[in-house]
Amino acid sequence: MKSEIVIYNLATGSEEVILLLDQHLEAPNWTPDNAALIVNGEGRLYRVDLSAPALATIETGFATQINNDHGVSPDGTTLVMSDSTEEGRSVIYTLPTKGGTPTRITPLAPSYWHGWSPDGATLAYTAKRGDTFEIYTCPVHGGEERQVTFGFDHCDGPDYSADGAWIWFNGERDASVSLWRVRPDGRDLECMVADDRVNWFPHPSPDGKYVLYLAYESGTQGHPSERRVELRLVSAEGGRPQVLLELYGGQGTINVPCWAPDSQRFAFVRYHA
After folding, report:
1. Residue 273, pLDDT score
2. Cα gap 209→226, rounded to integer Å
3. How many CA atoms lie within 13 A of 26 on its CB side?
4. Which residues of the chain are under the pLDDT cut of 70?
5. How far apart, in whole angstroms, are the C-alpha atoms of residue 44 and residue 135?
6. What family name appears in the similarity comment (predicted)?
């Protein structure tokens, strides 16, 4: 499996291939200083400097089973990651952006990180505490978690709007996976994108105008890898989505926040068999 890390430019509709490697890489985050991407692969985290793209391992101590749910704090000083080394199931940790010893945030597993509030104070994640995965939040340094969604068959991919007023996520009901938004306190639940596609991982742009997401073919179960998928763009207020491109991808393509600070570019991973 070859992994192609790509930057897409909204203004021109063009792509720039940053790296093409014989290694399975996933889920690029764009650092707030516009200097690098953070990706995961084979249980580790890597930094890819945009000035001279190459994989540079980030030291994560005991954590060597890192999955594709990781990100960077709004101020750029801290990484958050989801890792299953200690529990055998995913738990959320933080550590310095340059690497170091992880600090455990969520005492319960499984917990998969997906969003950081714009003020840097709160983490949003998907977690299973009963029969289904729902959306939760907790303080960035740990503490009591708040359940935000209720009554879904499955929820995933929570990510904050630029003003912190909404949490976007994908939610499944009656075998249909749509995009939703909800206030951080659980009020004002709204379905924003509902069609015949299976829609996952909505990411609001930093300027508050758009939401980027991954669309699978109708009937897809879960969020598998190695499928024909589309990257789509929709207004942050809803409306008719725009298809930006088709690609071979899925799981690992845009699991986590991937926008550039300027909101004109985003990073994604394409796969080649």
Report:
1. 78
2. 30
3. 22
4. none
5. 25
6. Belongs to the TolB family.
Distances (CA, A) of 71 to 124, 163, 166, 239: 11, 18, 18, 28
Q: Please check whether residue 115 is in contact with residue 167, taking contact to mean a CB–CB distance below 8 angstroms.
A: yes
pLDDT of residue 1: 84
Give which of 88, 151, 155, 175 is closest to 115, Cα–Cα. Answer: 155
Decide if 102 contacts 95 (C-beta within 8 A): yes
- Is the pTM of the predicted complex or chain greater than 0.85? yes
DSSP structure class, residue 149: -
Six token digits for residue 157: 């991919």
176-182: strand order across its sheet: 154-160, 167-173, 176-182, 190-193
Nearest C-alpha neighbor of 5 from the set 270, 226, 272: 270
Domain 2-272 homologous superfamily, CATH: TolB, C-terminal domain (2.120.10.30)
Give the per-residue pLDDT at 81: 98
Domain boundaries along the sequence of the chain? 2-272
CB 88 within 8 A of CB 101: no
